[in-house]
Amino acid sequence: MAMNEELALKVEDVSKQYRLGLLGTGTISHDLNRWWHLARGKEDPYLLIGESNDRSTKGNSEYVWALKDINFEVKKGEVLGIVGKNGAGKSTLLKLLSNVTTPSTGKITMKGRVASLLEVGTGFHPELTGKENVFLNGAILGMTRKEIALKLQDIVEFSGCERYVDTPVKRYSSGMKVRLAFAVAAFLEPEILIVDEVLAVGDAEFQKKAIGKMKEVGQDGARTVLFVSHNMAAVKSLCTRAILLENGEIAHEGNTDEVINKYLVGSSNIENYKKLNLESSGFTLHELGVRSSLKNCEDPILANEVIQVFFKYTNTNKNLLHVNLKFKGEDGEVFMSTSSGHDESLIKLGENELIVSFPANFFNDGNFYMDLLVVEKRKIKIIEEFDILSFLINPEPKELGSWMGKEKGYIKGVFDWK
Amino acid sequence: MSEIRETVITPKKGLLEFNLAEIWTYRDLLYLFVKRDVVTIYKQTILGPLWYLIQPLFTSVIFTLIFNNIAGIQTGGVNSFLFNLAGIVVWNYFADCINGTADTFKKNENIFGKVYFPRLIMPLSVIVSNLVKLGIQFFIFISFYIYFAFKGEVGALGWQIVFLPVFVFIMGLTGLGMGMMISALTTKYRDLIFLVQFGVQLLMYLSAVMYPIALAKEKLPTFLGNMVSYNPLAMVIDDLRKILFFGGQDFAIVNLAFPFITALLLFFFGLLLFNKTEKSFIDTI
User: Alpha carbon of A236 to those of A83, A260, B147, B180: distances in Å?
Assistant: First the structure.
């Protein structure tokens, strides 16, 4: 076929249409109409209609495009990440790639054996022993009995279930089932491996092992991996390239960091000022926001400006209160916590404003999220709000001729060099 | 790595495009599914595989009591229990095949929605694992046959018994064909599934399981009599009994032509529907 030697996978103009609502009355008439058109050699009349798949708006058409005009290529040995919000079309795309259902239009060409690891453990029979299930599951994924027998020892060892291989799987803990199933798939050695959120299950030790194995699989260059996950840290560490899906269309394609940033910016609404009425134990929060010290909340914040976070509150609680802020970067992990300390005079009774200032050039440019904690008597949480603020720090203007890229990390800091 | 396959996935596939070579590459999966079905069906039961024998024996006893003792159906000098057992064993194979394959898509929705393998493997594994069951049941039939032969209640065995595999093949193929058709149609329209179990039961009474066809022709109204005598399943069962008990009298191998062709047509048509459905049923089920 006309496919480049280097390519493992080619997706051309692929679309998938679904019909919304219930199948029932009308199904037969649509079927007959469709059949009548096709029988006369005409195009399917229902493929001409349909709307983009935006879950939150109500559409007019009964037909919806879960995927629309998807085009991409994956080279041999590449680890491609696929990210996107729930309902963006990731699962549909994987279903098409793993040949579970067919596209409405377009063409997918793949080289080599394809194995999908969508929700491991499907096909396990509870009454069969671990060993019997390894054979069955391996065969479902396309291995021959001989191949499985050769790898049985490795599979069992990797799963860490040696002791239970002759016990029916129904007596396994859910974690053990996942371990065993992942082990089967990991040793399958297909040319193309499709992985969907499997790493969300299993304990930390096993996750580490699984990620290690997947890295190994991706690195030897013979195999291609398609990896779908909401865990940006995993996508970042595994993938060389990524695709962002939005409402069934490819919104962005490129290197992993770039795509992940697009995804996070797109999915977060910048909310750097809030008016609210959050009351607990006599402490009421009316307003909070983040701004550059010389400007208002609406203005963009630059990295080389002093940055202030302020709170307007009314307090009737006579006990010692303090505020704790946690900052998160794009991967959603807290990288810094800071507290207002145990000075009793800081949060006064009555109506007041609390301000904390961060020096210029402290935050790196990028997206940040802030969690808020108000604590009474040093130990009782009276308010706990996650992602109460989110803000964007823009890079400061740079001289022409200097490097324009983005530094890694969340904190820059200005330190004394000698 | 010269044997790397290239897979091309495109929207519709031709009505007559069967990938039989692919089924061959998945033969190990077929074997493991059969093993799974045979091994797990009676796990955690006390009597285990004995259930394979209890079902036909009890049914046969009850048929004998009702149809032969009460209703007085004559079985031509053959022990009526044995006469019924022969019909039931063969009928059971057909019934198990159709019942086991009729809900292929619905039952395996979960696994079909996750992994690709030739879907046809599933119904085929049902046919083969039922063959194991048939083998065990036929073995018990032979034991009774020998016992009654000593008592002289059997009649004569015809040489045509060598065609036994053809009889089994026709029953299995008919069941598979009908089962595939129903399984394909029920992915969209659920109505049929309600019909199957009850329909199969009704069909049994029209299939000469507990009476000879000749008797049906003689005693039933013409319309019903024709329904029995032109029913390919009834022909198969009746002919088999002619060989087993009446020395193959009035049996010629051409008698099997009609049931054989019907089975092939049903199978082919079922395969067609199944093949068309398997690619996108997951969107409609």
Answer: 11, 8, 75, 46
